[in-house]
Design a protein that fits this description.
about 400 residues; alpha/beta; Rossmann fold; Rna Polymerase Sigma Factor, Chain: A; seven-stranded parallel sheet; four-stranded mixed sheet; 17 helices; 11 strands; about 45% helix; about 15% strand; binds nicotinamide-adenine-dinucleotide; binds magnesium ion; manganese
């Protein structure tokens, strides 16, 4: 029995993870479930999966959860606060930690799992984008195993030679005959929307992704293609490569989840339904395989299978992220912070869809030359960039 901790169990990835685990209760046990503040959802999950621990970021929500669990006769122990999330992520009995908190809030709990040498299933791409080299160095230093959950990175990982899969952080992809990583993206809901209509895009339109069902923040990031930009930076760190080794291709059907191009002209791709339970099952079972609730593709029903290039005017955020990736760690930390502030403001109805790129661009211009490698410096830079993004928001309002 492998013991699993889920950071962010009430979110889209958390729920998908539990759906896979429910099918494999003879091999995996849920040690801990954690969430921000959604009591009802975490309560139902605790009653179904009977974890030893549950933790909530919000203290009042934790107290409510504890009360409800006791009423229901549950023995799950409830903890609260950020320190509790870190404690559970590094719990001595945990084998696998699913890092599925959204945004910078997930950084320290994810690092806590890395520092205890756990098998870390990484969905929380912002944590890696924020800290890059520091994150990967900790993985190496503590002998942690880092497996990508993001569907593109999971696809690329599956297309790598087995010898490279064991050492993605310290080998060069070129030494394995790889010439390029091809990152596919759907282009989001506004792939064909006339640019003149972009100012009027509402949060409800932006979160309605054509292929994937996801949390709000990543859905907006998919609409701006900042998500692909963050994934570009994520790929640079996960696969120890340079910006020049990565190319973004729009593939609106989301059937190919990404590809690896070899020097002999071969391109290997991973295909499947756009359903996160496939990469989750892959990572849980790695290096083996196990069933997931996802049906295989039916090629008799597949019609269009198309590819285009992302237009810079349509997706300025993608190009800001690539620029930041080339500039270095300070730039990527600052851009990620600005984007979290901008997306939250857009979802709250404070700025227009097109303002997200304005906030991000202003912040990148300000911090592009910054360097930050120690954790304290990175966290300080993240805070400075958030302040700067707030200043831009005030100017836009
Ligand atoms: P979501 O918004 O649906 O869920 C986020 C989870 O994080 C919730 O359980 C929430 O309670 C928890 N959380 C939020 N703030 C917290 C805090 N301060 N402390 C503790 N917990 C907190 O998000 P999601 O779509 O599941 O995405 C999670 C992560 O996975 C993101 O980083 C996203 O980029 C990545 N990801 C998601 C998908 C997807 O299909 N949803 C695909 C690839 C990558
Ligand atoms: Mg992805």
């Amino acid at each position: 029995m492998r013991q699993v901790v889920i950071l962010g169990s009430t979110g889209s990835i958390g729920v998908s993870t539990l759906s896979v685990l429910a099918q494999h209760s003879q091999s995996f046990q849920v040690l801990a479930l954690t969430a921000a503040s959604q009591v009802d959802k975490l309560l139902a999950q605790c009653l179904q999966f009977k974890p030893r621990y549950a933790a909530m970021f919000d203290a009042k929500a934790a107290a409510e959860l504890s009360f409800q669990l006791k009423q229901a006769g549950s023995t799950t122990e409830v903890l609260s606060g950020h320190a509790a999330l870190c404690q559970l992520a590094g719990h001595p009995d945990a084998d696998i930690v699913m890092a599925a908190i959204v945004g910078a809030a997930g950084l320290l709990p994810t690092l806590a799992a890395v520092e205890q040498g756990k098998t870390v299933l990484l969905a929380n791409k912002e944590a890696l984008v924020m800290t890059g080299e520091l994150f990967i160095n900790k993985v190496k230093q503590h002998g942690a195993t880092l497996l990508p959950i993001d569907s593109e990175h999971n696809a690329i990982f599956q297309c790598l030679p087995a010898a490279l899969q064991q050492h993605t952080h310290d080998q060069r992809i070129q030494d394995f005959g790889i010439s390029k990583l091809l990152l596919t993206g759907s282009g989001g809901p506004f792939l064909t929307t006339p640019l003149a209509q972009f100012d009027a895009i509402t949060p409800a339109q932006a979160v309605a992704h054509p292929n994937w069902s996801m949390g709000q923040k990543i859905s907006v990031d998919s609409a701006t293609m900042m998500n692909k930009g963050l994934e570009f930076i994520e790929a640079r760190w996960l696969f120890n490569c340079a910006a020049d080794d990565i190319e973004v291709v729009i593939h609106p059907q989301s059937i190919i989840h990404s590809m690896v191009q070899y020097t002999d002209g071969s391109i290997l791709a991973q295909l499947g339904q756009p359903d996160m339970r496939t990469p989750i099952a892959h990572a849980l079972a790695f290096p083996g395989r196990m069933a997931s609730p996802v049906a295989p593709l039916n090629f008799k029903q597949l019609r269009d299978f198309t590819f285009t290039e992302p237009e810079p005017e349509r997706y300025p955020n993608l190009y800001l992220a690539i620029e930041a990736c080339r500039a270095g760690q300070g730039a990527t930390t600052a851009l990620n912070a600005a984007n979290e502030v901008a997306v939250a403001a857009f979802l709250a109805g404070q700025i227009r869809f097109t303002d997200i790129a304005r906030v991000n661009s202003a912040c990148l211009t300000q911090f592009v030359g910054f360097r930050a490698s120690a954790l304290d410096d990175i966290v300080a830079l993240d805070q400075q960039a958030r302040q700067s993004a707030q200043d831009t928001l005030r100017k836009l309002a």
